[in-house]
Fold these 4 entries.
Entry 1:
Amino acid sequence: MKRICVFAGSSKGSHPSYESKTKELGKVFAEKGIELVYGGAKSGLMGVLADSILKHGGKVTGIMPTHLFDKEIIHPDITKLIEVETMHERKAKMSELADGYIALPGGFGTFEELFETVSWAQIGLHKKPMALFNIHRYYTPLMKLIEHSIEAGFVPEQNRELIFESEDPHQILSWME
């Protein structure tokens, strides 16, 4: 794993562990020499992760569509910023650069990115590992929904293996490797 794409919230969330565990993940990325590929913003958990990686000597690549420059504050200290025209180009570039994916807690944008990536894996467009950083059990209801979808016959049982989840960054990265 040289580069991992991380989907994360543009806010920090309401529980202090979201921020503290995100910082821990950033430190582990830097220690292992894993470059972050993400949306390029300074806000929320996205910014917390980028800051932590940079603080510990790691590399960060941000990818942002031009139209978001006013809405999202571009992180001024990242190693590299790639400007694209559309959200579709952003996601395609993130996928092109990444060896795997991790979703941190986040909202609709994070969910959309996660599910598109899982859908792509389901139809064979990639075989990259995907993990949920289940901080403070944030993704536990989603994992229950996935189980329900399998039981209801909408998701093949073998696709349960497409997503790994843990609250331990070392465990996530070991699984991804």
Entry 2:
Amino acid sequence: MPDALPLKMLHDRLLVILDKDSSERRSTSGIVIPATAVMGKRLAWADVAAAGPSVRQVSRGDRVLFDPEDKSEVDVGGTDYILLRERDIHAVAQPEKDDAGTGLYL
């Protein structure tokens, strides 16, 4: 994620980078499911690159869940971003804890 973007976000707008892993998926048995496979409405994960001053629940660097059908794409400095409103975000992922395991090898 770039350190500084050459723009200032306004109001409740978010600029996110689509997670590369959300294009292809793997089933529980290990079969690769391509992004072109239609399986109903599927939400996507993205990382927040910038947030406007009125955004209250999300901050830069958060991983968010949103509907990719309701998106506006923009290219800034050769990187593709998606422009969203804060109300379009369905969830914010909790940060992963590195020490969450028990340390036991079974």
Entry 3:
Amino acid sequence: MQRKIIHIDMDAFYASVEQRDFPEYRGKPLIVGGSPEGRGGVVATASYEARRYGIHSAMSSKTAQRLCREAIFVFPRFDAYKAVSRQIHAIFHRYTDLIEPLSLDEAYLDVTEDKPGIGYAMDIAKAIKQAIKDELELTASAGVSVNKFVAKIASGMQKPDGLTFIGPSKVATFMEQLPVEKFYGVGRVTAAKMKQLGLHTGADLKKLPETELIRHFGKPGKFYYQIVRGIDERPVEADRETKSISVEDTYQEDITTKTAMLRELEVLTEKLEERLLRAGMKGRTVTVKFKFHDFTINTRSHSLLTAFNDRNRLLDTVRLILDKADLSDRKVRLLGVGLSNFETSGEETGIARGGNQLRLF
């Protein structure tokens, strides 16, 4: 039986909750996270009014303030967002119990067999979107397809309040036309490497044999070979708690000095803060990952007494780890930074994610 997968992604979730709860913010450029006048931190979510100025998540508040002087900055209210997330999931459970959350504001749903017996995934997605709008006064975008990968890409195609269906007969053409930078999991460095090899679209990737993709991109090459053909057998996995959240990047040229490593880790730490804010998670243990030119991997961790998710403490801990690390004569090809040992479990926060780790490449 062919799967029927829906990916639901709330529209500007934190900002939309704030605008719903505080009418004075409606219609105005609102930024959740960071601080006014660019005093530090990153944007967790920006309202669509703010996005018109080019403001987006993970952007520094200083840059956001420069782009829009009228922007309103508010601190995140995670308790409120978690409460709304639980209400959203209650709506999901009317249709299926196969729900794999990725964060407070997005999730995969397997509706191959739905509780009400509706049978049509598009009708279920419409019903979910309408219930969220009517009951919670919020909007969501949905992607509907035969697997998780395509459904996730589809959900972002017509935001906000979008609904995109990519049926079985359209998947192959869709993947062939997709630019490589739009492939979920393909980051800036990998996309640049693909383009250097003349690989600009899924159709270009499809021309290479699996062995060639693995030679160029390592283990992910096998995934690229399958996904460009519309093959994604990953099931929707419910009730698995996230143990850590991390970000990492691979570099075209090896990094040889701690100064250069710290500069790259600062960039990764900003991305990690945004990911943690979106997930509403605080942890105690910071881990830095090093992959060297000979492909060996080392990790170093440091734990604090209290849980946190702000960039300053993340970066202070990263500096401490880097100072203690023995990196003499080592060439670093990949760096990563993550947070674990979370303050609360997924069940307590209303989050139960698929898989043990979230990565942003």
Entry 4:
Amino acid sequence: MNPIKFLQSNRLYLRPIEERDLDHFYHHALWDQNGRRLTGTQAVFNRQGVQKWFESTQSDSSRIDLVIATQDNDQVIGDIAMLEIDQQNRSAVVRISIFDENYLGEGFGTEAMSLMIDFGFQIQNLHRIGLDVFDFNERAIRSYQKLGFKQEGIVRDALFYDGDYHDSILMGVLEGEYQKQH
């Protein structure tokens, strides 16, 4: 069975999360130490909790959760989501996680985020897309800046992780800024 390719580029495609992905998410994505640090994840997950999360997202029209997979071998390398979709104010928040370390630093995250931003502005008719990123995630900050995101604020000491406090950097991009750059 050929996978659904909801959004795609030359190297990757984004598709809906399916039930068959849940074990992969539970065993790899949610327990990867580097991924947990970069996302500030401190919660403890079990398989039943992941199942309940999946079921709740299926009927939530304020979010779109997608898997990031490679075009050449359909390997799932991460996930991406558009959250808090607000049609009245034409805004949303995005988040991304590349949990296969073989694909870090190769531009896959930037490419996936570009697909999601295009979708937000061109299909969802959004005006503003925001995100937050922890101050130690310099690779992600550079990627977001490359896509046109600008720093809008800092939430000081927002995360306590491994015995240290870290700031959360709030970033956003407006439709006109993005269109001008791309």
